[in-house]
Design a protein that fits this description.
306 residues, alpha+beta, Nucleoside Triphosphate Pyrophosphohydrolase, 3 domains, six-stranded mixed beta sheet, 23% helix, 29% strand, binds zinc ion
Length: 306
């Protein structure tokens, strides 16, 4: 399972534009709200054991939120409508107020890295973080500059001034592992932890297919010419709003020339080396991304021909 994928919720996308239906969901006796504080979801349990997404009854979450706090209908879990709500207005909800001592507000990346949440709950927390983050950054109309208002259960923002609609954005990123025979190409980004090498990645641009984006990025970053490109899997990546599109690519050349300023280093790794490194070993300080990253799954798919 790819981290942040596999949410079981019914997003009710055909019904959430109906204000009366939404109000019923919000007042439903099974309604629950996931509070987010400074973009950190509330979780129950300590970090060294299993944890649970901290859904609470609406009145509790609402008592901590500011007047115009962004919220979103995440979806229906069977009968139960689940929401997310920004409570960043609260000074310190871990130690003061109704949630004090009951759990923690934890950064999503750390939660994914530890694997302490069930995969379905991690996916829901990722969705919640991406949506609240989008609202907090899109309070004003990109067209006329007037304030926008949240509608459709948080799935649209509407400008009362000019009538423009703004929808939550997803920014596509291609992430790809190029290989030639028994070797694959990995790079170390300038901001990576020391020693970590990964698949190359970059934002898709308007007017470009996935395959074209893959070829352009590898050529720009490492000077390698790529032929066939095969899609493998994707990953929602709420930092802040990406969709990682994972591909395997066939390298047509082998001489590395670092191009733009993205990579500090790039190199070829042998298949046997990759197999050993995926098991968690380090060689000469070199290591590969953990299972929470889609790059790990690309490397695994190539190395074990999965
Ligand atoms: Zn406007």
């Amino acid at each position: 399972m790819i981290a942040f994928s596999g949410s079981p919720l019914d997003r009710a996308s055909a019904r959430r534009a109906d204000a009366a239906w939404l109000a019923e969901q919000r007042a439903h006796r099974s309604a629950r709200i996931l509070p987010l504080w400074q973009l950190r979801p509330f979780v129950l349990g300590a970090g060294h054991g299993p944890q649970q997404a901290g859904f609470v009854i609406p009145a509790v979450a609402e008592s901590m939120a500011g007047p115009d706090a962004p919220w979103v209908l995440l979806g229906l879990d069977g009968e139960a409508p689940l929401f997310a709500l920004d409570i960043s207005a609260a000074a310190d909800p871990q130690t003061q107020g109704p949630l004090a001592g009951l759990g923690h507000f934890e950064e999503l990346r750390g939660l994914a890295l530890r694997g302490s949440l069930a995969p379905a709950e991690l996916a829901i927390c990722g969705q919640a973080k991406a949506m609240i983050d989008w609202h907090l950054r899109h309070g004003f109309c990109a067209r006329c500059g007037a304030p926008t208002a949240l509608v459709d259960g948080g799935w649209r923002r509407r400008c009362a001034q000019c009538g423009a609609d703004h929808f939550p954005r997803t920014d596509p990123v291609v992430i790809m592992l190029a290989s030639a025979g028994e070797r694959c190409l990995v790079g170390r980004g300038r901001h990576f932890p020391a020693g970590m090498f990964s698949a190359l990645a970059g934002f898709l641009e308007p007017g470009e297919t996935i395959e074209e984006g893959v070829r352009r990025e590898i050529l720009e970053e490492a000077g390698i010419v790529v032929g066939a490109v095969r899609y493998l899997a994707s990953q929602p990546w709420a930092f802040p709003s990406s969709l990682m599109i994972g591909c395997l690519a066939e390298a047509k050349s082998e001489h590395i020339t670092l191009g733009d300023d993205e990579l500090a280093e790039a190199r070829w790794l042998e298949r046997d080396e990759v197999r050993a490194l995926l098991g968690g070993s380090r060689r000469e300080g070199l290591f590969l991304p953990p299972p929470m990253a889609i790059a790990h799954h690309l490397l695994r798919a190539w190395a074990f021909d999965e």
